[in-house]
Amino acid sequence: MRLILAEDSTLLREGLVRLLTEEGHEVLAAVGNAELLLKAVAEDPPDVVVADVRMPPTHTDEGLRAALEIRERWPRVGVLVLSQYVEKRYATELLTGETEGVGYLLKDRVVQVDEFLDALERVAAGHAAFDPEVVRQLLGRTTHTDLLARLTVRERDVLAEMAQGHTNAAIARRLHISQSAVEKHTNAIFDKLELTGGEGYSRRVLAVLRYLGS
User: Fold this and answer.
1) Cα distance between residue 86 and residue 46, in whole Å
2) Lower CB density within 10 Å: C or N end of the chain?
3) Residue 143's CB: how many other CB atoms inside 10 A?
């Protein structure tokens, strides 16, 4: 895939360039701030942008703002946002938009190369990829605890995997259950959470993500 990286840490940025190049991907640009990121995307839109949430000059939310602008101006470009910590406000901003082709990972997850590359592939394919710790904390803060209390332990496990962006087949492998069991749990989850009207897997996952982010 064709990628653009935005990370102000030179060491991490160059490490990602080397990793992705060795994996056979093409890094179109590797920049250190949001302004250069937007300029690079405008010149040659990539398949996916990987961007740090906090970048110069204020090191607050420049990377996130750039990511949201990219999603608005170039909706076909996937965005994988990296953060040092779980920043619920930023995660929620991503969750409440269109989550197809969007990811949010903690930087610690980048060290786990296989998980990072898997998330990147999912974002490039138009799916969601949210860090398990982000999902755990959002599950813990949702105001809909009365509805979540209806779920069984296994249904909560399936919901957490869904919120990370995994397909039914992937959830079956990760939880060591059959795909038909996943589908059964998924239907039960939507019934218990009173989520109706979605068409297709991605729309149902989007509904759950928005629900958890509220």
Assistant:
1) 26
2) C
3) 8
